[in-house]
Amino acid sequence: MMRMRRMAAICVGSGVMTVWAGSAMAQQQQSTETQTPWGIYVEGGTTLESKSKSDLGTAGVTYQFGSRHALWGGIVTTYGDFFVSHWRTQRDLVGDQTYTQVGAIANARYRFDQGASPWFADLGLGLTWFDGHYETEDRRFSTQFQFTEVLGVGRNFGVNGAHELSLRVLHVSNGSIRKPNPGDNAVKLRYGYHF
User: Fold this and answer.
1) 109 closest CA partner among 19, 8, 192, 18
2) What Pfam families does the annotation carry (predicted)?
3) What is the per-residue pLDDT across 37-59, written as a single tens digit (0 to 9) for each?
């Protein structure tokens, strides 16, 4: 059942990417800079490390702050990411386990081609809190508090680059504040809208 859901998610993601790429090519070149610092997003994904995978769903708000800086032929901007995630894992003896995660991440976004490219890369570091000790078949976190690191790559599209799609890799661990500290990694697909 879990494999069927993952395959469905991959098919939907592939379809979205195909439609997105086609519509982006059909549009005239437009500015990738939005008129407002606010954005909202949804994302879904799965963990990579555990024997029993966890599925993740997230909703969040972004806010761009700070000034633009030139770096290596591109432009760097910064934004805050505030979110709520729902994690669901299946364990043999107890069935489905669910966890809610809230967090805030400070991100740096590098936009290529002097900032004119629709393509970007993100790097983020933040703090998160689970409503319980996250546990899978082979991992148990010893703290509810976790550090979170994010790497992402994506593309803006639509009028003024208001829409964006990105693929993101997330790592959570407590930084060895307490043992055990197995950490976990996840890959997620994000759709965002800037308004």
Assistant:
1) 192
2) PagL (PF09411)
3) 999 999 999 998 767 788 999 99
CB atoms within 10 A of CB 148: 20
How would you write 25-75 as a 3-class SS string? HHCCCCCCCCCCCEEEEEEEEEECCCCCCEEEEEEEEEEEEEEEEEECCEE
**Can you tell me which residue has the tokens 């469905």?**
8
Is residue 76 within 8 A of residue 105, CB to CB? The reply is no
Instruction: Give the number of other CB atoms < 10 A from CB of residue 174.
Output: 18
Count of domains observed in the chain: 1
What backbone phi and psi angles, to 5 degrees, belong to 47? -75, 160
State the residue range of the domain holding 85: 39-194
Q: What is the CA radius of gyration of the chain?
A: 18
The pTM of this model reads 0.77
Q: Residue 72 is part of a domain; what is its CATH number?
A: 2.40.160.20
